[in-house]
Amino acid sequence: AKIVTFQDGGTPYNLTPTGCNQNVCTGLSLLVVVDNTTAKLPAETLNNATKENPLLSFFKVDSSKFAVGRIALVRGGVTKKHLAYEVSTFVFAYREAIQKLSTQLITSVNRPGPFQRVSYGNGTLRAIRVPPAQAAQLAGVLPREYRPDLRH
After folding, report:
1. What is the secondary structure of 79-90 as a DSSP string?
2. 3-state SS class at 33
3. Nearest to 29, CA basis, from 49, 48, 2
4. Binning pLDDT at 50, 70 and 90, where does residue 146 land?
5. By CB neighbour count within 10 A (0-12 exposed, 13-18 middle, 19+ buried), where does 2 fall?
6. What end-to-end distance do the CA atoms of the chain give, in Å?
7. What is the pLDDT of residue 78?
8. Cα–Cα distance for residue pair 108/121, rounded to 1 Å
9. Is the pLDDT of residue 120 over 60?
């Protein structure tokens, strides 16, 4: 699959055709991979972010990274106007979600002692560029993780 990566404000965005059959694609995957090494957001926080955001899905890539994605339906073709709309919607939703994750109140019971540790997110979430092969692999995972339905 062809991957298009572009940067906006230092954030690398990956666009990949999705649901392709005989050179006709029904979707476009939009992905950003985020370094979670310093922030260490737990899976529960990412799951809640997915539940709270109707435009994005958050999922763990590995122990130090997570991805934020969206699938746009293109029904076999896409106009420049439609592409611009989908990309700008994704970029705006991603920026808002990362800002919220970077500044939210976080509690954890995985700390020693009788009290929960409470802290504000430290703003250390950083989007990273990934090799095209990994972007393609994550675009394949996104349909499994994508939840455009009502959140529960």
Report:
1. -HHHHHHHHHHH
2. strand
3. 2
4. low
5. exposed
6. 33
7. 72
8. 12
9. no
Looking at residue 9, the DSSP 8-state letter turns out to be T
Task: Please give the radius of gyration of the chain, using alpha carbons only, rounded to the nearest integer.
Answer: 16
Bridge partners, residue 31, by sequence: 14, 69
Q: Is the pLDDT of residue 135 over 50?
A: yes
Residue in the block written with tokens 């250390």 = 124
- Cα angle 118, 122, 126 (rounded to 5 degrees) comes to 140
Residue 89 has pLDDT above 50, yes or no: yes
Rounded to whole angstroms, the Cα distance separating 126 from 146 reads 22
Residue type, 68: V
Tell me the pLDDT of the chain averaged across its residues.
Answer: 82
C-alpha span between 121 and 106 (Å, rounded): 7
Tell me, what DSSP letter sits at residue 47?
Answer: H
Q: How many CB atoms lie within 10 A of CB 110?
A: 7
User: How much is the average pLDDT of 64-84?
Assistant: 85
Task: Give residue 148's pLDDT band: very low, low, confident or very high (50, 70, 90).
Answer: low
